[in-house]
Amino acid sequence: MSDFDDLIWARAIHVLAVAHWIGGLAFVTLVILPLARSRPAQEGLALFDAIERRFAAQVRVSIPVAGAAGLWMTYRLDLWSRFLDPHFWWMAAMLGLWAVFTVLVFIIEPLFHARMERLARANPQFALARLTRMHSILLALAVATMAGAVAGAHGFYF
């Protein structure tokens, strides 16, 4: 066993957690929401809600796990200075994306869930369009961050 086994495990756990989290976001954005929007609005909203509720419970695990593993790698490798280096913009982007999702999933969604449900019941078609737009923006940010992180981790600078 080497002194870096914990880093190997941290990286593997980090990648698996991110794959679950962002893969789920992609599935919801590219498959579930278009399917929901192809149905009558109330039915589509019910479909989205049923699927999203199950995924939200899972992502409440994968987001903190991704963050903890990323923090561990940053600490163990003493990579703090990279957050200030423009060549490593993707480090700040990963942290920013993680922070946005953490706030959305753990603070905003629970605080405003009842309000969002009322708005959705009043105008389900508008709610589905808004959810699609929001998920699409978040997915685009996540994909750009992932592409930058993978390329950057292998020595490519934009």
Please describe the topology of this protein.
Layout: H1 5-37, H2 41-76, H3 89-122, H4 124-153
Helix pairs in contact: 1-2, 1-4, 2-3, 2-4, 3-4
Summary keywords:
158 residues, mainly alpha, 4 helices, 84% helix
Q: What does this entry look like structurally?
A:
This protein is mostly helical and 158 residues long. The chain has one domain (5-153). It contains four helices and no strands. The chain has helices spanning 5-37, 41-76, 89-122, 124-153. Helix 1 runs antiparallel to helix 4 (124-153) and helix 2 packs parallel to helix 4 (124-153). The longest helix is centred in the middle third of the chain and has 36 residues, at 41-76. 20% of the residues are buried. The model has no long low-confidence stretch (mean pLDDT 94).
Structural classification: mainly alpha
Query: Count the strands?
Result: 0
Helical amount among residues, as a percent range?
over 70%
DSSP helical segment count: 4
Order of helices and strands: HHHH
Shape: elongated
Give a brief outline of the structure.
This protein is an all-alpha fold and 158 residues long.
